Amino acid sequence: MPVLNRAEFSRTGVVFVALLIAICATGAVAREFRAADTQTEDYPTVQALRYMGALIAERTGGRHEIKVFHSRQLGEEKETIEQTRAGAIDLNRTNVALIGNFVPAMNVLAMPFLFRSIEHMQKVLDGPIGSEILNSFEPYGFVGLAFYDSGARSIYNGVRPVRSIADLKGLRIRVQQSELMSQMIRSLGAEPVEMPYGQVLAGLANHLIDGAENNWPSFVTTDHYKHAGYLALTEHTMSPEVLVISLKAWKSLSADDQTIFREAAQRSSRFMREKWRDLEEQSQRTAQEAGVTIVRDIDRKPFEDAMVRIYVGAERDPAAAALIERIRKVE
After folding, report:
1. Do residues 229 and 159 touch, judged by C-beta distance below 8 A?
2. Is the pLDDT of residue 22 over 80?
3. Could you give phi then psi for residue 33, rounded to 5 degrees?
4. 170 has pLDDT over 90
5. What SS3 state is found at 25?
6. Residue 277, class by beta-carbon neighbours within 10 Å (0-12 exposed, 13-18 middle, 19+ buried)?
7. How confident is the model at residue 30, as a pLDDT?
8. Cα–chain center distance at 77
9. Which residues pair with 64 in a beta bridge?
10. pLDDT above 70 (res 238)
């Protein structure tokens, strides 16, 4: 070990004290934040989380960094949501249908046939309604940071083309681990099978399920299209993804750092949308070239009419009823 003379020791002490004063002044402690995402490394949401991490590292001078765990490294979404709520995971990108088990407003965003188009959904989420929803997370152990796009979800299977509700009868369709999604599939005459995302490919390959429902990129990037050659463009939900931070991690940040995290999350949302559009177009081309039968000429009205009981049940909650009405009024 080198021996410091008195002058060197004095200078070292001055530097240490100056650093300590700087840290105390900002109220910030350097740390690495763990972020969970079930999608693959090159998926738009994973890229967006990394982009957010780069922004935060730059704005904080490297004090804070985000380490992204993709491909279900920290567990399936249901598990990572619970871990985030407990503070074991810092940040989590998840679909609104699953976090709706904890945050009631999320169930509204997952309602089938609520949004008229992707543009309608984005206008709602980018406006006052979206801000209010993100601000409603805190009582449940999370802080909402931003919404990510998730496209429109449609039904696919490996048994037969679906052109009407009658064609769904008897099919075993995988849904997210959400009672709302199970109700929706049941209302359409099919049999819902709640199953973690990571088990769907094996379920299709082994015929444990007949099909599933998801967006274009998820249909293709997971190889579901290789075992489910019929896709019906039902576009029954356009529920977004949401990025949350655990309340525990949020409270560890100074007010200035909280602002940096929020701004970086919002910028990552815009970044993600650009990546998403490119992947969605590419995924459609891949499915078509692989010979997937795409049923586009669907009469959506019978599908929408089948959701009446679900809406009646949801609107028994005055807060949910008011939010549904406000969303529908957005032009």
Report:
1. no
2. no
3. -100, 135
4. yes
5. helix
6. middle
7. 86
8. 9
9. 31
10. yes
